Every structure is written in structure tokens, then in C-alpha cells.
Amino acid sequence: MPDVRVLTLWKDERINEEEALLLRRLCEDIRIPFDEERKKEIRALVDAFLSMDEAAGLAAPQIGISKKIIIFRNKGFHEKGWSKSESDYELLINPRITQAIQVEVSRHPEIKVRAFDATGRRINKRYTDYVARVAQHEIDHLEGRLIIDCEGALYVPKQKQEFFEKTFDKMKVAAGNGISRNI
After folding, report:
1. At what angle do helices 161-175 and 17-24 cross, to 10 degrees?
2. 138 is known as an active-site residue
3. How many domains does the chain have?
4. What's the rounded Cα separation, in Å, for the pair 25 and 133?
5. What CATH code is carried by the domain that includes residue 20?
6. Looking at the domain assignment, is residue 22 inside a domain?
7. In which domain, by residue range, is 90 found?
8. pLDDT digit string (tens) for 41-69?
9. Which residue is catalytic, options 19, 41, 90, 138?
10. Is residue 166 one of the residues assigned to a domain?
11. Of 46-55, 84-93, 143-152, which gets the smallest average pLDDT?
12. How remote is the C-alpha of 140 from its chain's centroid?
């Protein structure tokens, strides 16, 4: 397992203010062709993701790299111990959602993304259903958006309600915006 720690918004019923600020940071595009440092960052993200059996996806900011790189499974979501072959996941660099078909849900069920692959080659991909949701979630990380920024009601266990209300109040102050949540 690589020596990489995944940043979290909260832990042990306390907000990780320092990590939250890192996760909110806007990410930079990566120049093509990749220099050696960028190749190391790409490899670090791939290695971290492949070491996580339960992960659906991972964005570079989640491991402390403020670059526009995401990786996510494209099949085998219900399999434990998935094959982890290159055909089972997508690695996207500088992804942009270029077209979406929207329905009344918080994520688009179909998206087209323009990005670069691990060799620096320009690619266009279409994702649907669950894979589209995962890709959008990981791209949100690249833009400093967190799950608590999403619209819609958030349901939490009654015994955790006070913790989450305090967390969202702190996040409003830290982000300097009007994050509003229905708990």
C-alpha cells in the first residue's frame, strides 16, 4: 500500500479545518506534455486509488495534490477484490464536462468529458448512469466543491444533527459563502 493519506472533511466528530481548506482549493491544469514531477503525481494518484479496494473514485486533491487529475472505476462496483486492470478504471487529466443531459436529480445521468490520458493524448469520453455520477463527484473535488455544497436535503441520524449543524456553520465562515443545508 502506498504511503499516501486521504484527506477528509471530518474525523472523530470534529471538522478537519486545515484539510477542508486544502480540499476547497481550486486545482490547476497540468501542462502537456507532462514533466517528471507531473508523472510522479499521476502515478501517486493511480497507486493510491489501486490500494483502496472499496473506493469508487479518487481526485488528486484528496491526497494533497492540487492538480486536475481524477481516477474512478468504470465497472465492477459491487465486486470485492476487483481486478484493477487498466480497463476497469478511468484516469482523466484536466477533465471538463462538455455536454450533459439533465433530469431531476442532483447529478447528470449522462455526460461527455474532454480530458487527457496518462500519456498526454487528448480524449473525449461519454459516461452514463453510476459512472457519470462518480466522474462528476471527482471533478467537483477539482473545483473545490464538497458534498456539503450540494443542493438538497441532507439526512443525518438524530444523535449527529448538532455536530453537522456546527460543522456547516464553521464551513460557511471558512468558505466565506452562504452554504445552506437542510438537515
Report:
1. 50
2. yes
3. 1
4. 21
5. 3.90.45.10
6. yes
7. 10-151
8. 999 999 999 999 888 999 999 999 999 99
9. 138
10. no
11. 143-152
12. 6
